[in-house]
Each structure stands twice: as C-alpha cells, then as structure tokens.
Fold each of these.
Amino acid sequence: MDILIATYNPGKVREYRELLIPLEATPVFPLELGLRIDVPEDAATYLENATQKASAHARASGLVTLADDSGLEVDALCGAPGLRSARYAPGQDADRTAALLAAMSDVPLEQRTARFRCTVVIDSPDGPRYHAEGVCEGLITLEPSGSGGFGYDPVFYLPEHGCTMAELAPEAKNRISHRARAVEAALPLLRRVLAVHGPA
Ligand code: IMP
C-alpha cells in the first residue's frame, strides 16, 4: 500500500525514499499524484505546521500521510532561523547559508552551537494522528563545505564525525540526522496506522 509523503522539497524526497525502506509500504509524493497543495507554514510550532501539512494532504489524497516541519536553531541567534529556516533569506539555499554566516560573523567558534530539529506528523483521512521528533546537535562553521544533502548542511559541522553534514555520504546522514531520528521514532506509529488502513 502507499503512504503519501507531503513534501515538495527534492532533498527531503531523496531522504524519505531511503528512510522509509524498512516500512512495508511504498512512499509516494504529491507531485506524482498530480497534487500541489500550498499549506501556509505560519504556525508557532513545528508540530502545528507539520499537522497542517499532513491533514491537508491526507484529506486531499485519502491516503495515510506523513509530513514534517524542520529547521535549524542557532543558540547565538536565540534559536533563529528556526521555524523560518526555509524563508530566512530570499533566493536559494546558498543565499540563506551566506545570510546565516554573515549574521554570525562575530560569533566565536565555541559559541556556534546549533541543532537541526524535525517534527513528523502522521495523519490519515479518518485519524488518529501521531507525531514524533528528532534532533541532531552540531556547530555552525565559518564557511560552507561539502556538496551533499541540502539546505544548511554545508555549514552544519558534526564534531563526532569531523565533517559537515554536506560532507557525509547520504547513507551516513540518514543514520544520524534529525529527520532519521524522527522517522525512527515514528516507524512503530506508522506501522500501527498502516495496519488499520491496509488491505483487509
Ligand atoms: P520546511 O521543513 O519545509 O519548513 O523547511 C525547513 C528548512 O530547514 C529547509 O528549507 C532547510 O533550509 C532547513 N532544513 C531542514 N532540514 C534540513 C536538513 O536536513 N539539512 C539542511 N537544512 C535543512
């Protein structure tokens, strides 16, 4: 059976295809179904944003749906860009990482602590709804490095790995990332929902 992953972000699409391999269900994406639903990401929490995305896509598709909302929280910037990570600066990912590095130009290395956070919500046309969260701790570098992943990966340094998230192989990112941890926590919930909605 199919599970709809409510994202239009090509980086997330690549990661979810791998992350959901352990699931006895096929991930499908809105554009593959001819769906394009723009959900405003204007809520005060990751959970509310992800819930709005999951509910709208579950209603429109009739499928069990997983949505996530995620962001980068930098301690020296009081948690920014946080919920506004995707809209922190106009342009492409590289423009946003450049804006982040510029905002942190006077922050010393030991104060450049940060974390990626991801909340996933699982919904279905007739509920119930579940959620799970994953966090990945790191440091913001002085300059970008690496070409893997997406978003802020080139400036997110992982001390335990000695490289940025963008320098990790995709399989390695999918073992340790905030999204990987949220999905790991969500897998038992997903199996429960899919068992209820699966073929009789
Ligand atoms: P949203 O979850 O679609 O609101 O987007 C979150 C934004 O946070 C993305 O556009 C990226 O800028 C950033 N982000 C989320 N997850 C990651 C990641 O795994 N690596 C790098 N940046 C990320």
Amino acid sequence: MSFEDPLILGIESSCDETAAAVVRGGKSVLSSVVASQIDIHRKYGGVVPELASREHLRQIVPVVREAILQAGIEMKDLDAVAVTCGPGLVGALLVGMTYGKVLAMALGKPLIGVNHLAGHVHAVFLEAHMTGAKIPELPAVCLIVSGGHTMIYRVRSEGGTKATRPYSYERIGGTRDDAAGEAYDKVARMLALGYPGGPIIDQLAAHGDPNAVKFASPKMSGNDFDFSFSGIKTAVLYHLQRHPELQPEIEKRKESIANGHRSAVDLKPLCTQQTLDLIASFQGAVVEDLVTRTLSAAQRNGAKSVLISGGVAANRELRTRFESEGKNGNLDTYFPSRALSTDNAAMIAAAGYPSYASGLFDDSTLNADPNLSLV
Ligand code: KG4
Ligand code: ZN
C-alpha cells in the first residue's frame, strides 16, 4: 500500500446489482464481485425497488467479504472506501452507502462518495489501463447507455462537482422518455423474449433483416442530441397489433420461458423469420439513432475520443457500428469489456481514485441522492 498505489474498495448498489471490488491505484482490478438480482426481478419484467433493497441487504456483507478475499488482502490493508451515492433507487443506494460509510469509519479510512455515472465513464479508462490500450484523450464525448440512462456528456479533465471531481461533465443530450435499455427490455417483454431483453435481442437480431420493418427516426426539436425511445416501443406494439398471426409464437415462447428454456438457442426456433426481422429492425433503428447522434455530438463538440459505456454498450451491433463509423469520422471509439460495461464496483473504485489522489474525502454527512447529477 502506498499513496500512489492505494487499495480502494468500491461498493455499488444503485440498482439491481450488489457489487464490491478492490482496485489498486485506480488502474488494476484485484477483484470484482457482482451479485446479480436478475432471477428475482425476472418474473416482474423489470426491477422492483423494494425487492432490490431487500436483496442488497442480504448480499452486501458476503459480497464485500468475497471481494476482499479474492483480492488476497485484509480489510486493514485498504486505503479508502469508495461508494456510489447516486443516482439510482434510493432504498438500494442507501444499503451500499450506509455500509460503506460505517466500514470506512470502523477502519479509520477515508470515505469517497462516487457518482454512478462517473463510474460508467471511468470504466472506459479502467479498461484501457487493464489492457494496455491507448488511454482516451480528453475532451471526450461519452454516451452512457443502460437500462436507467441514455445520456451524452462532454468530459473534461478539470473542475467537477463533489462526486465527480476532478473531472467535469457537460450534458449535451439525453433521452426525453425511456432509456435505450428500457426500450430493449419492454420490447422483449412484448415479444416474450424474457428479461433482460438486451442480450437476447442482441443475439436474435443477427438472424433477421434490419431493413424489413421501417421505424421513423424521432425528430428532436430543440436539441439534435436528445433521444426518444418510447415511439419505437409503441411502433413495435402497433406492428404486433397489425400482425395477429405473430400471437401463437408469442404464447409458445412464454411457455418455453416459464419452463426455464429462455436462451437464444431455446427461443430462436420459436421465432418465425417475420419476428426475427422485426427484432433486427428494432435493434437497427435504436443502434442507428445512438451512433448517429453521439458521433455528430462528438464532431460538433471538438471531441478527441468517443466513450461508450453502460449495459447497452455490450451490444455487438452497437460496437461494430461505432468502431467503423468512428473510423470514418476520424474519431477513436472506446468501450469497456462486457463485465465493466454493466453495473460493477471496479468502476466505482476507479472513479474514486482521482479524489483519493487529491485528498478530497467525504465524511459521515455523505448521503444517498437518487437524482444526483453529473454536471
Ligand atoms: O448498466 P446496466 O447493467 O444497469 C443499469 O444501470 O441499467 O444495464 C442493464 C441494461 C438492460 O436494460 C439490458 O437489457 C441492457 O442493459 N443490455 C443490453 C445488452 N446487455 C445488456 N442491451 C443491448 N444489448 C446487449 N447486449
Ligand atoms: Zn449503471
């Protein structure tokens, strides 16, 4: 342990993943443990806040213990505790934040409150450190795209608010209704593809024609970099109403999922080509919108790099399109690995590192803020 290479314990509980990780010097992940609650929320087709808080309470102690164990250290070796203090579900946030606060006090170590969205941005830097790839140059434009967020930020290396320092963020655009991941989950629900919808739609879309069904790109008056995904979700619903012949296969997939057969291998034979085309067209339209608006925000804001993070950043078509179109526009695009894209605590520990290095700590007044802003 040293001042330059501190061991920071990260704790994350803002939504439906209880996570803890130990990261050295903001760059090297010694352990990253994630207890997912997907199985608990699956039957409701989305996250149920009360169940999430209860599950975090059950998981937080074993998950933190496991992270310490896997890192091969003892609690006393830690130099600081970094914990997500918002945004997110308030009951869920309170569990991790209270535990982190008490642990830091008991160990006599500094406490660092971290903005969850800053964590997603730092996941991209952490990935570059871990793989030895080029570190993204700033200023950058970052698309955070998950089940709860779809935002475009401009990222600079100075300034910042209490939970984002010493980086600063300027909001360039964001969704006016559903987050992209939420649209994936809702469309998957309509089509009986299980929960969460993103990974299965990602896999099935490869077997369909993305040009089969035309979805109009939403016109965003006032800001070209805003998004809207509720329209496409409704368009899928209307499509299903116009095509009642798709209902019997929906019932068959429901039955398959109820029997625990919910993988792409299980569900693909229960999808007609018409459904696969609909799935591919939905994904094509969402990806097109995310890529076009983000790259044009990057061009217009003089970004040197484009960062893409959050659960939907795991999407294969999104990655391919960003990579190829970024190249065409002379923009370097950066993604975290899949494990660092979805919610995890390594990104929280990494985001806490600059604060540690600057000696900027929080005290026992740190509170959970469900609407905590990044700007
Ligand atoms: O970042 P995350 O783990 O949690 C939130 O903060 O929301 O993101 C979860 C979201 C879900 O909506 C899920 O359907 C979506 O990310 N997702 C994907 C993929 N993997 C997860 N969406 C599209 N393609 C994927 N491969
Ligand atoms: Zn997240």
Amino acid sequence: MHKKGFIFDLDGVIVDTAKYHFLAWKKLARSIGVDFTEVQNEQLKGVSRVRSLEKILEWGNKTLSEDEFTKLMGMKNQDYLSYIDKMDDSEILPDVSQTLDYLINQEQAIALGSASKNATPILKKVNLFAKFEAIVDGNDVSKAKPDPEVFLIGAKLLGMNPEDCTVFEDSVAGIQAANTANMISIGIGEQSVLHEADYVFNDFTEMSSEFLEGIISGTINKK
Ligand code: B16
Ligand code: MG
C-alpha cells in the first residue's frame, strides 16, 4: 500500500476565512488612515499576523511604537474572532469534506499546516478537528511562510519524508514554502496568482479522485 502525506492550509483552503481576515485588516488599516487593495491583500494571505501588520504599515508609510503595534494586532484579532464566532460547518469550502474523507478512506496521512494562531478553534467550529492526524499552526512555528518550517514540522509529525508530502495552499507565500520543502504544491485559487504551484485548481470540486490516486500511487509527481 502506498502511503503519502497530505498537508492542508486552513484559511482559504478549508474555510473561506480569508475574507474575514481581509475585512478585519481593512477596518484596522482604515482606523490608522491606511487603505490597501485586494491585489495587495494577496500578500497578506498565509503570512503571520505580525508580518501582515508590518506590511500594512509599510504600505501606509507609518511607524508605531511596540505597544501600539501590539494593541492594533489585538484589535484586529478581536474583530476577526467576532466573524469566527458565527461560523459553522456550512462554511467548509466545496468538496473539502469529501476530499478529506476520500484520503482517510485510502489510509493516507493528513495534517493541517496553517499560519493562524486561531486554527484549532476554527477547525472545532466547523467540526473537522477530528479528521487531522497532526495540527501545525501559528503557535508552533518561529518562521512564517514562505519559510517551509510549518510544512516540515507537519511532515515530521506524520512520520513522512517531505518529498512524500503534498500541500494544498491558497497563498503565494504558502506555495513558495511547499516548493522550498520539496513537496508537491497544489494551488487552490487562480492560476494567474498561484503560477508557482505544481498544479492549480479553482477549488476541490475540480480535483478528481483519479488525480489524488495518481499522487498516492506516485504517477503524479512534483513538476
Ligand atoms: P491569525 P493560513 C493565515 O492562515 C492567513 O492566511 C493569514 O492571512 C493570517 O494572517 C495568518 O493565518 C495568521 O492568522 O491572525 O489567525 O493568527 O492561510 O496559513 O491557514
Ligand atoms: Mg491560506
């Protein structure tokens, strides 16, 4: 039997929390007189909370004291959590549950690899927590994506070699992290944004079981 590792990003792959991060950062940025576009927002996907605020301040040419910086990060997270609080399993993105169940039935190793410090409560909210053999999130890493640390820890916890792992990611930083880790990188989103990925699908409804079977059996590989 072939056993491979499958590492799922959370925000923008399993659930559409990327839109809540965007709303919360937009509001926070506006409160300090900074505005940013949806195109700029792509750069905030997958990166840590600290790095996100640093980027927003760079865009607005602002500097803050350490205390103010910490306070603004707290405000953003409070606002973000007010969206999370209302989540339920109806917010799981199309065919994600089916994909997880297919891989579990095939006895594959499944981990979460997210930059978010809120990953566990979100997975519990949408009733997917029990499906993961390992969870690596923003509380476990010292280096943010595009550093491969989050995925390398995931592979280790699954007992898999990095080259036997596949990553599902919606962010440019996450695809770069997967590539650096020497894992198959699968972009979930737009080809034009995620062109560094080995394979790109708009969402999981476009991914056939034959494709997943090809990864498991080794006929589909890193490009
Ligand atoms: P938090 P992922 C990432 O999650 C988000 O894409 C990114 O926008 C966010 O800044 C980061 O989590 C930190 O999230 O503020 O909840 O700790 O896509 O890696 O699952
Ligand atoms: Mg993401």
Amino acid sequence: MSSNFYLTTPLYYVNGEPHIGHAYTTILADVLTRYHRLFGEREVHFLTGLDEHGQKVSQAAAENSKTPQEHCDEMAVLWKDVWEKLSIAYDDFIRTTEPRHEKVVMDFLNRIYEKDDVYVKKYEGWYSVYEERYFTEKDLVDGKDPISGRPVEKREETNYFFRMSKYQEWLIDYYEKNPDSVIPKFRLNEVKGFLRQPLGDLCISRPKSRLEWGIPIPWDDDYVTYVWFDALINYYSATLKPPKGKTVTWPADLHLIAKDILTTHAVYWPIMLHAAGYEPPKQIFAHGWWLDKDAAKMSKSEGNVIRPLDLADKFGADTFRYYVMREMTAGQDANFSIDGFVKRINSDLANDLGNLYSRLAKLYHQFSWGKYKQSGSKQDNFEGKLTEQLNAVRDKVKNEIEAIRPHKAIEEIMALVRELNRYIEHWEPWKSAKIKPEATGYAMLEAIDCLDWVAELLAPIMPERMKLLRQWIKNDVHIPLKGLHLFPRIDLSELQIDEQNGNDAVNHGGSTVSDEISIEDFKHLDIRVGLVIEAKKIKGADRLLSLKVDIGNEVRQIVAGIAKSYNPEDLKGKRVIVLVNLKPVKLRGALSQGMVLAAVSGKDIVLLTTDGNVEIGVEVS
Ligand code: MSP
C-alpha cells in the first residue's frame, strides 16, 4: 500500500498574529512539500491550521471585546492571508473549532474512557495560564513557570486524568526500537532523559466554571477538554475528512515542530494514540528558535526595529523564504538580523544568481544566440561531465531534504551557481562571441540549460521568481524579464524608512507589549518643538520628504517617510515635534539629522504638533 507522504506543522494559537517563528515552520513544511513533489516518489499531503480553544484564546478574545468564535474567525482570515503572502500551498487547513475535528476528539475521549484509561481526581498544583498547564512545586523555577518564566497560581480542582504513566514503559521501548522517530538525535536523547523520570498522569479536563471555551467532555457536561489533548488530535482528525479531492491516511510521516513543544508531541501524543488504538506518527522533527541575538542592535534606542514579516511584504516572499531556509541550520537556534538578511540576499541572490541570469539574458539578445538552438549540434563544454555533475547535485539535494537540512541543499545548489559564473567568466562571451561566435553560442546555451536545472532545484524555496526565470528559459525568444533584474540589490537605507515607523522586532511567543522603560531612560531623549521652513520631495524615493526644520538654535535637515500623507507645500510653517538627539543617518543619499514624530496607523501618518503656540526649540517632556 503506498499512501502519501503526510506532513504537518503545529496548529498555532490564534491569540496573536504570525511571527517569524510560525512563519519558519510553515515555510519549512511548504519547502519540504515542494521538494517531495519534485522528487516525487509519493503524493504529498501538507496540513497546517489553528489551535483555537483554551484560555489564551478566550482571554485574547475578551481583550478585543469579541466572542471567542468571532475572534477565531477573524484571526483565521488573517493567518491564511499571511500564508498566502508567503506562498504557502497547504493541502488542508484545519481549525480545532471545526465540527470535523470536535467530533473526532469526543470519539477519541470515549475510546480511552471505555478502556478505563481515564479517572477522576482532586488535584492541587501550580497553574500557568501562559502554558495552560499545571506544574508541581518542584517543577517551578524561582516560583515561576519553568518554560515561559511567567507567574503561576495555586489552584485546586477536580478533574479527569488520563493514565499516561501506564504507557511509560511502552514508549521507552518504542523509542529503543524506532530511534529515527525523533530527530535530530539529540532531541530524542532529551525525550529519553525525560522518560527516565516517572511520568505523571495527564489532566485532560477543565471545569466549565473556569473555562467554557473548549470541546465538551462527552460524559460530563460540567467539563471541557484540555486544549493540548484537543489540539494534538487534529493531526489524526484531519485524515478522516480531508478536503474534496485529497486523500491522506494515518499515521503522519512527519510532524514539524520547534523544541518548545517537544514533550507534548514526543511523549503525550504517541501515548494518547497508542491508548486509543492508533499508530504513533512516524517521525517528529524539532527545530530550534529564531532569536533576537543582538538585543541592543534590534532595540528602539538604535531605531533598528523591524517586523520580520515586513521584509516579505517589502522584498517579496521568495527572498524571505530563501533567507530563513538558508540561515537556520535546521535543528539549531538561529539569530535574526536585518544586516544578515540584506547581506545574504545581496550576496547569494542579487550577486550570484541574479547576475548569472542578467548576464546571460543580456548577451543572449545582444548576440542572438537563439539561432543556434535549432541546429541540434551540442557541445559539452563541461568536459563531458555536465549531466553527471548536475545529477550529482540533484542527488545531494534530495538527500539533504530527506534529512531535513534545507540549508545544506541550498549550499549545494548555490555552489553550482558560482561554478556557472566562473564558467562564463572563463569564456568571456562578451569578447569570444566576436571571435568564435558559434562555439560561444553553444557554450552559453548550455549555461542557460544549467540555469534551468538550478531554477528547478531552487523552485521549492523561491516558487515565484524561479517560475519567472524558467518561463524566460523555456520561452523560445527568451523575452527578458522586466528590467533584467531577478533580484534587485537591497539598499539598507530603504529599510531605515521602516525603522522610523518603530515596528516590532522578532517576537517569540506572540506578546505585543513593549518593554517598560524608566523615566531616566526617557530623559535620554531630546525632544523639541520645531518649525518646518522648507519641504521637498526626494528624487527616486516616493515615501520620503526632505524637511528643513528650525529647532530654535539651529536648522536641521530631516528626512521623513511621510510623502504618502503630506504634500510638501502643506508643511511649510507647521509646528512639529522633533527627536533631536537621534544619530544622523543617510536615507537615499540625503542626510537626516533627527526625526519628526508622528502617529502611525497602518498607512496613515499624522504628524504630532503642539496644542497652542509655544516658542520654537522648547523642550518636550
Ligand atoms: N498551539 C500550540 C501547538 C499545538 S500543536 C497540536 C502552540 N502554538 S504556538 O502558536 O505557540 O506555536 C508554537 C510553534 O511556533 C513552535 O513549535 C514553532 O513551530 C513556532 N515558533 C514559535 N516561536 C518560535 C521561534 N522563535 N522560533 C522558531 N519557531 C518558533 O504551541
């Protein structure tokens, strides 16, 4: 029986919007899906979705003055929209509030209840609202939740418990016999270490008096199901009612998760399945975290704060996908930085790959190499090794993808790109086309064939642009892509425009509350009332205006990203609020010596001013 390759992401909580961590796992799943399709031994089925029950979601809804269902419905639209922007082509999107899931959870509960694997008990413990689970006294670190470091509260409740401990030996034995079922290997060791301690039973209910937002416990109206017990079952329930035209069977081949949810996936989940009479998943891959390493650099004081997903909006999904796949050694933690993003994109994509394309495209047209295409006479300028070499790269890429090392797969392909660039440099076709036109023509057509291989192999990472590139290659007349630039160089100053908007940096855990500062911190800011004496557009920068602002004792030039909201002529004579002691930066070649403050709501920007006349240069405090 050849079922399809079934892979999943976690179901993300809908208490916030997606950030780089969620995006990474989902892009990884999409990339693996596309590679498996490319190498195609089996059909692939890719599932993602949302975890919509539980206290966190119910709290987020209350904060937004929505019912939980309204909140979830709105968030589902937002999450799907982000996935679309990132070119995520899932086969199924499951929400835990869907009837197709709720029914299966209740059946699952009934199965283990009938087997007597559930009992009722009064329990007292330390509850973390953030993690939605109880901890024992000895679990706590400095009296706080040992995972999130957040406060815990003592609670006493009567609840239903699942006899997880009964299956501890079975699971230990299972991992002995199936050592590849959790990767990387060191994660399996963590799981085994965890299983050396006695495993407690799992509290699987929440009294409705405390939390109504959940799937009812089928045999007791006063309770709903613990959110993790509900959410994990999605991977199974999605197989019973897949979208029309799709088929998928249990067990899953691969659950992609990050290390934060290893225990729930590698301990609770296989035991739950085993108790209910189903097979465990074949493999779990736990990757590391995206970290904001150089906090100072990403902090407000440096003005260097950017939401990672904004990069995808600004530079296209493909460059963002490439960056996260290339930069993280899957399994380890990785550091996100804007600098790193710009360097990576400029060197690998603008320089190596982009140049390869634009050189070939330009010369192809200049020397009309198309005429050699039909003749059928081919020379192998790679000394007979071309096909062999390309096949070897393809095999290596396949191996790396099977081992979930996309960064290595990319390295293999980019090495080929660099080799092709060397090949062209060696030929110097811009010269040799004049001396030996035919031989040069054939050699360059071969290079274009190789570029097609490259594009095919990179398409799972960058589906949009590789499609364009392949269209150019396949097109007989090779109509050049607009502007000949596949990957324009990124200019760091373009990003500084956003820095002024004060967007959030990498945000693990979905909290949107800024760090608190003291009054002393605030005193470091020199803010004054200024008067605009001149305003003009900046050539080639449609969001920027260059202002001359009188700040009392001097006139400053300030570049502001307000051109979409203000005409230069309306600004002259306006009182503005200026952050005076901001380190000067060059934006699009113009020096900016300070920042005008504005209220920013989406695309609307409204300058701050004074309520009444005050002297120019007066301090704001
Ligand atoms: N709802 C649970 C999962 C239930 S699965 C049946 C949950 N949701 S979550 O929204 O918190 O998402 C956790 C997942 O998001 C991680 O496992 C990982 O896939 C991703 N990430 C969140 N922050 C991350 C980083 N900073 N870095 C990398 N990925 C992380 O837990």
